[in-house]
Design a protein that fits this description.
about 65% helix, globular
Length: about 80
């Protein structure tokens, strides 16, 4: 977890898109890894706990500040399919 805000000076929108897509793919990779090593139900449970933590603000309270951003993040995580074990 980051200790403080990172400077994004000089970062363009394309770089943000690449970072967001990469993080999304990392979550999908983690779910597949969990499914392979702990079973498909463990991956489903991980996703459910992740969504719960996001929706409650346990991971990042700033996400709760703007409805549009919150909805976008939740929609992307909910769209992750259940990986095969």
């Amino acid at each position: 977890m980051a200790d403080g805000p990172e400077s994004v000076d000089g970062t363009d929108m394309e770089q943000f898109k690449i970072v967001l897509n990469t993080l999304y793919l990392c979550i999908a990779f983690a779910m597949t890894h969990i499914a392979k090593h702990e079973g498909a139900q463990a991956a489903v449970d991980f996703k459910a706990e992740l969504l719960s933590a996001l929706k409650s603000g346990d991971l990042n309270m700033a996400l709760m500040e703007e409805t549009k951003t919150f909805d976008f993040v939740i929609e992307k995580i909910e769209a992750l399919g259940a990986p095969e074990a």
